[in-house]
Amino acid sequence: MIVLLVLGIVLLAYAAIQGVVHHQVRWVPIVVGLLLTISMSFGVRHAQGQHFLMSKVPLTKTQKIQPAVTVNDFHLITTEQGVENRLRYTYKTNDKTYQTLTQQAKAEVVAGKKASLKTTVMTYQANSTWRRFLLLGQDTLEKGTTTYKLTLPEGWYVVPANKVDDLQKMVQDNEGKLANQVRDEINKEVTAKVKADKDFVDDKAGQDKLKNNVIKKVTTDSNKQLKVDMVNQIAQWQKSN
Questions:
Q1: Gap between the Cα atoms of 231 and 195, Å rounded
Q2: How confident is the model at residue 97, as a pLDDT?
Q3: For the chain, which terminus, N or C, has the lower number of CB atoms within 10 Å?
Q4: Are residues 77 and 146 in contact, defined by beta-carbon separation less than 8 angstroms?
């Protein structure tokens, strides 16, 4: 467009010179020069901002991802506030930590079978010789917005980065309470057995079996409740974001 703009100006200058020197009105160069000057001025002004004469060409890349951190079998993708109040997602690929961009970028999280991150960069390209000629002297390839699509399977969660310690504390507190719960339940079960059968006091094999069953049951129940509590806590954090 710059070339044609210059050509239009040259034609107008030529027509003006002819008018002054030869006292002749050259309508063809005047009309063509005006058309080129006006249209190309408009094109140059809007080429960069509105991707004039360019076509949308999305560039897409999909990669497998790993959790940023794992807590009690909860695979976590962590988030932080980025520019424009958009969330920046932290994840790992090949055991290396990466973050998504937030400026001119949007992200969505969907459920799926395999953990992956699909990155789409919208580009604008002059994809013909004529268009490249018209844009001579200007960029013929521009980058637009970036879109991220996080696909997370069951057992994966998105949490704020500053809340990971809270989840770890929930696990630690649960482990601290577990020993007391097991002890109390064993005492309760043994007492009930002794009351029902006096010989149970001397039944070491029966006592060991009872203890193992109690440990297994209490541990299983405790872990189930912990999982429910963690899921509920994560849901509350997500609502507040």
A1: 41
A2: 96
A3: C
A4: no
- 193 phi and psi, to 5 degrees? -65, -45
Question: Backbone phi, then psi, for 63, in 5-degree steps?
Answer: -135, 150
Q: Which two tokens stand for residue 59?
A: 């560039």
Residue 241 contacts by C-beta under 8 Å, 6 or more apart in sequence? 79, 87, 160
Distance (Å, whole) CA 197 – CA 192: 9
Identify whether the C-beta of residue 161 lies closer than 8 Å to the C-beta of residue 87. Answer: no
Contacts of 33 (CB under 8 A, 6+ apart): 8, 9, 10, 11, 12, 14, 15
Cα(164)–Cα(99) distance, integer angstroms: 17
The chain-wide mean pLDDT, for the chain, equals 80
Q: Is the pLDDT of residue 1 over 50?
A: no
Q: Are 77 and 147 in contact, with CB atoms under 8 Å apart?
A: no
Contact between 87 and 241 (Cβ < 8 Å): yes
Relative to beta strand 87-93, strand 74-81 is antiparallel
SS3 for 126-139, per residue? CCCHHHHHHCCCCC
For residue 86, give the DSSP letter: P
Predicted local distance difference test score (pLDDT) of residue 5: 46
pLDDT at 192 over 90: no
The distance from CA 75 to its chain's CA centroid, rounded to whole angstroms, is 16
**Burial profile 207-228: b = 16 or more Cβ within 10 angstroms, e = fewer:** beebeeebeeebeeebbeebee
